[in-house]
Amino acid sequence: MTIVTNLGFPRIGPRRELKHALERFWRGEDTGESLQATARGLRLKHWKLQRQAGAELLPSNDFSLYDQVLDTAFLFDAIPQRYRALADADPLAGYFAMARGHQAGGIDLRALEMTKWFDTNYHYLVPELQAGQGFALRGDKPVAEFLEARAAGFSTRPVLLGPVSFLLLSKTTDGSDRLALLDRLLPVYAQLLERLAAAGAEWVQIDEPTLVLDLDEAAQAAFAHAYAFLATAERPRLLLTTYFGALGENLALAAQLSVDGLHVDLVRAPEQLDAVLQHLPKGRVLSAGLINGRNVWRGNLDNALTLARYAQGHVGADQLWLAPSCSLLHVPVDLEQEKTLDAELASWLAFARQKLGELRVLADALEGKDGAEAALDAQRACLASRRASPRVHRTEVAQRLAALGARDSRRATAHAQRRIVQQAAFDLPVYPTTTIGSFPQTQQVRQARAQYKSGKLTEADYDAFIAVETERCVRFQEQIGLDVLVHGEYERNDMVEYFGEQLEGFAFTKLGWVQSYGSRCVKPPIIYGDVVRPAPMTVRWSQYAQSLTRRPMKGMLTGPVTMLQWSFVRDDQARSETCRQIALALRDEVLDLEEAGIGILQIDEPAIREGLPLRRGDWKAYLDWAVEAFGICSSGVRDATQIHTHMCYSEFNDIIDAVAAMDADVISIETSRSRMELLDAFVQFRYPNQIGPGVYDIHSPRVPSTGEMVELLRKARAVLAAEQLWVNPDCGLKTRGWEETGHALAQMVDAARILRADL
Ligand code: GLN
Ligand code: ZN
């Protein structure tokens, strides 16, 4: 009998129940017990749901109140000193202090750093370790959740983050070698495995996703060492799980580790199946990741079945498990809940629950069960309707893209020459001041939008409201003396959604939430078809704002890579192709803005860096098409039109060539928290275009003094030419209040004036 298994289930709940419970608890409106009761309820509901959907072997300990890496750190007592007293007195408070900081009763603890989980949009908390530290079991979360499942009638496979990945995903605060801690950590893992065995767990899932990365010899040796050690423990059988890519040159290593089963991702890397089968020792379970855990499309079951049959022929029916490619954490819970998607589009999609159903169909088909063929037929019909749909394929898009030449993605003249023309056009002072786009989205702004969306406010009233807010914002900027103004982005809910809603080929769900970090969820748009811009998207508000002032008004767009990166994308064509389509739509928008008299345009690309593939060998191809896409958007304009871009959360060393090739006239970056260190890459590269290094951190309500900003600017001035520098905050101001924004910007303008006096 073929087993259907799952590696992890979304924990936020079909209606974000966990988010609401967490936030009630943080506001002090609910007790820890009641939070835990909600969590228990969700776990039970999710086990039932997975079982009903057709999975036999279910995960436990895949649930987390905040993050599974934080859970792991907490479980092994990798708790930095600053949180210890709190964690000892009140474990839940200590745990959340690590997650989100703690400010109360005279204690002020900053949170652990957060970073992206591989190439997903999920963020994990980065454990802080130091040389010589100890580890010990703290609490028994994996055992308790295993027993909780068993009491409810589910025999589960506890999920642990493996020891080597845990260390590789951590950082040391003293610069010491993370892997040097392995020998201290392993006995505690062994102890935990023994306890799980004693509790009756037959299998444990041990996640080692770092096996799909480029690993140096030390990391490879750590794997060999760790699993040789764990082989000697009194332990359940181990399923070693790898996902998000091919094992590549780590395959022989992974296959030889003494575990009892291996999970591989056959969606991202179907081509590795043959090699995996060759390397896998006899008698070992192969968990085949056949259904995409990273995207929302119904899978091609015929292809999956071919892989499954082939694998079964090698390992035998008892040794083959069918699974999603990775944990289903990265997709929404249940398509059934979506009542507003049209039926045709919905028939092309599968969320977590549906994906387990697809695996069930595969298993039934492998076993030749009645009904399997009918289910396969139904799936074939859905896929065929998508393939043939005129909503998906628009010949005019393909034709226009085919007609683009190399000259359509590069500006005709060099920046040095454009700079002269632009200087004449705008006559800006040295150290020109500007902002990144959004201004505070106050309660009133959000409320007006909600009322408009629910029909309580007419379109005319909503527009009038936005116009008033925009004018106020323009007057404010004039009054404090900013040089290049923005309209404030009041009309926008989200920088991707706003554009997606106006483009054809994008769809939006009502409840398609995916956890981003902790209680934060995002509802990524679904790009299902060729992208077409039926009408200008931003011209009206930009033109209106420009009409209010004689100063230059910057037009604001979200770049193609960022739109791609923060959406569920098509799986029927290359990402690069979808990106080019979005770029083409934006090119039209850029030209319309220029035509409407907007002389400065900013195309935000905060997600360029995070889109880097997991393996270095794939970087160049990605950066090439990312740069080309930016070129398609931005290169159609006259020399006098100034193109800006903005990138936050970026580290530039790996991508500086590409950033330079994007050839924006001005780039604004986030530098204040790193005290201008992020500029180094630009300096070493001798980056020739203009740069606005953010001079204050908008992620915090703190208002920096003029002196601090002057100091940061002087640091930048020491390494770059005065003519290259712009003065701006780190990022958009939409999450800030007016009060602090007003002070901070006025002081920023003062800082620029002081710098000018240096000249
Ligand atoms: N223009 C956007 C804003 O100001 C940029 C946001 C971002 O970089 N994340 O809000
Ligand atoms: Zn930003």
UniProtKB/TrEMBL annotation:
One of its GO terms (biological process) is methylation. 5-methyltetrahydropteroyltri-L-glutamate binds at residues 16-19, 116, 121, 520-521, 566, 610. InterPro entries: Cbl-indep_Met_Synth_N, Cobalamin-indep_Met_synthase, Met_Synth_C/arc, UROD/MetE-like_sf. Pathway: Amino-acid biosynthesis; L-methionine biosynthesis via de novo pathway; L-methionine from L-homocysteine (MetE route): step 1/1. L-homocysteine binds at residues 436-438, 489, 604. It comes from the Bacteria. Zn(2+) 1 binds at residues 646, 648, 670, 731. Binds 2 Zn(2+) ions per subunit. Zn(2+) binds at residues 646, 648, 670, 731. The active site is at 699 (proton donor). It comes from Pseudoxanthomonas composti. Keywords: Amino-acid biosynthesis, Metal-binding, Methionine biosynthesis, Methyltransferase, Repeat, Transferase, Zinc. The lineage of its organism: Bacteria, Pseudomonadati, Pseudomonadota, Gammaproteobacteria, Lysobacterales. L-methionine binds at residues 436-438, 489, 604. Catalyzes the transfer of a methyl group from 5-methyltetrahydrofolate to homocysteine resulting in methionine formation. This is 5-methyltetrahydropteroyltriglutamate--homocysteine methyltransferase. Signal peptide: none annotated. One of its GO terms (molecular function) is zinc ion binding. Its EC number is 2.1.1.14. Residues 5-311 form the Cobalamin-independent methionine synthase MetE N-terminal domain. NCBIfam families: met_syn_B12ind (TIGR01371), PRK05222.1 (NF003556). Its cofactor is Zn(2+). It catalyses: 5-methyltetrahydropteroyltri-L-glutamate + L-homocysteine = tetrahydropteroyltri-L-glutamate + L-methionine.
